[in-house]
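Exercise (ungraded).
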Amino acid sequence: MSDLESFRAETREWLEANCPPEMREAVRDEGDVYWGGRNAKFKNDAQKAWFEACRDKGYTVPEWPKEYGGAGLNPAEGKILRQEMARIGARPPLSSFGIWMLGPALLHFGTEGQKQRFLNEIANGEIRWCQGYSEPGSGSDLVSMQTFGEDKGDHWIVNGQKIWTSYADEADWIFCLVRTDKQNKYQGITFMLFDMAGEGVSTKPIKLISGNSPFCETFFDDVKVPKSYGEDIPAYVGEINRGWDVAKYLLGHEREMISGAGGGDRTAAIGAAMKRNAGELDPVLRAELAQFDVDALSYAAMGEKFLDELKVGKAHPAQPNMMKYVGTELNKRRHELMMAAGGSRALEWESEETSGGKPSRNWLRTKANSIEGGTSEVMLNVISKRILDLPGA
Amino acid sequence: MPLYYDEDQAMLAESAQQFMAEEGAIAKQLRHWRDRDCKDGFGHGLWKQFAEMGFTGMLVDEDDGGLGMGHVEAGIVLEQIGRNLTPSPFLSSSVLAATALKHGSDDVRGRWLPGLIEGEKVYSVAIDEGAKHRPETIACKAEKSGNGFRLSGKKDFVVYGASSEMIVVAARTSGSDSDADGITLFAVPQDASGMSHDSVRLVDSSMASHVTFDGVELDGDAVIGEVDGGREVLNAMLMAGRVGAAAEGVGVAQGAMDMTVDYLKQRKQFGKLIGEFQALQHRAAHLYSEVEIARAVTIKAAQLLDGGSEKADLMASVAKAKVAKAAGLAVKEGVQMHGGIGMTDEYDIGLYMKRDRALQEFLGDQYYHAGRVAEMSGY
């Protein structure tokens, strides 16, 4: 048996022993997702047991090095673990912006001291992070952001406002773009890390068309941010005034995450499930579903190819933009079709049968997919310039 | 298995790309034969060169003198064929007929494979009966006759049929027209008496036959595989052919897209390169995405087929449908973005549009395959 085959066999056995049956069911609502953090509560014992088993094994972040809380898996092993988890429908043991976004940035740009502290806290689910990027006047044109940190020697005094901060009201810390040089547009931004419990930080949830409030406005009113949290633990990633490099690197990861390239619901075919729910499908709807399934199954293959290439450095650096564009447009189409197949039942906003209006609320939520993390139009701009090398600004 | 080419496959891709760009180029092959009104529609010299490159027998088992490669490798060659619009019997002979012959007896393989591997012979397949691909229904009949069979009926869209030394024919040996069972495959030699070709040129300048079998007497040793058990062989052929056609379609899409993106960087209007206009940039970027995805799903389907996966049939249909959509978009956007010059015969972009049209139809169009995906998925 090859090393990989025996790894697969061991993984299968480990999952069998450690993944409770409840954790193999599809995620139904927000409570089924475990985000970690200081105030985290487990929904049930199964969620707790599954999280702890993965944490102890390094499987909350399987491909991170062991010294930072991961399991040190190589890309081939990581793929096998994903496949085996998908095979039994295992839920992710821990979800967080620390895993998806800050972690990769720290692995790339962080000091040893930052990695030791922050990566372990993320892997162990101790600290829940949020991301402070967009501002009311800076959406697609992110680099125009104005939140300012005044240099006071050993600390900054930060003033300004962020918007669309996902789960800011539940986060412990924020990784935040702060302008530290007003004269220099691109090289005047610092990628700061600070505690949301600090004085002067406040959040206000934004109610969306879905009726839910996953995003916040975040206000900074004379927030004191020390420049260092101890030896070799600066309060910023990369260099002062060079935070845009980190932000751009991280946007790639954000786009990869939103793209759903890793599989799961975002890449699944839906026709068969729609037929089961609806009983009978209108022939034209059936045809649309078939076209959708062709696109979704094709996109799943693209996701697999993209991740395989990414792991070995073969992917074009701008490819996450393409994945994000296609993945989010596909997801919007998926929910349009699910609403159509669901009929009047899918319109219900609060009923028990729809778990509180899940079909319609989810449908509305997907409309943000092609806006957040860079709009589809911005993605197409980036593909034109960086991949197709088309001329013009 | 990662979803990208391994080292050997990358080397094959490089040599196939170089070879096809030089020897299979549009001016050297497609236009050359078309403008001479060649009755074959392809060059036998190039077919010999394919043999020298090892392409002709790449899917044939090593024990039979081939290279024993898989559909990922065949797809690599086909993508380059598509990119250069190289007219060749590769898909019909080296993919479809070769897949059928794998199921043949020692005698059948010994009779037909050497000529294929050497590039001496060309084979085609006769599946369709009518203008649309409906292989679920086969009416063409082969009745017992002495030690052999008597073949009667008609077949359509037999690509390069009139130039072929042998045609693999799917015929009914028992049951009714739409039965899954009762199919037998036959290797029908060119000189079989009672077989006639009505050979027509298609929109893409390839040649295809309407073939009539008027009581064609066949020896028992013309049978490929089991009598009445041909559906399995036919399905294997169809999967291989669909994945192969998808790979060729990816090449057509890529070729059309490359030409078009180049054109956007050269053509000036309103004092600007037209590629500076966001209205065109976004369409080009969308097209790029679709072509990338079409390639990914085609390689995936080929890997599944090579691995003997039970998902291969579904993914072959997904790939064929997706490539049809992506390549269709590539050629339509290609002609539109080229503007008036795209409508001229002198410019190659229109040739891509024509080839795409024929390739879309071959072994089932996107509507057929999307419908098949729905059926196989249970709705």
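Further reading is listed at the end of the chapter. For now, observe: Chain B is about 50% helix and 15% strand. The mean pLDDT of chain B is 97.
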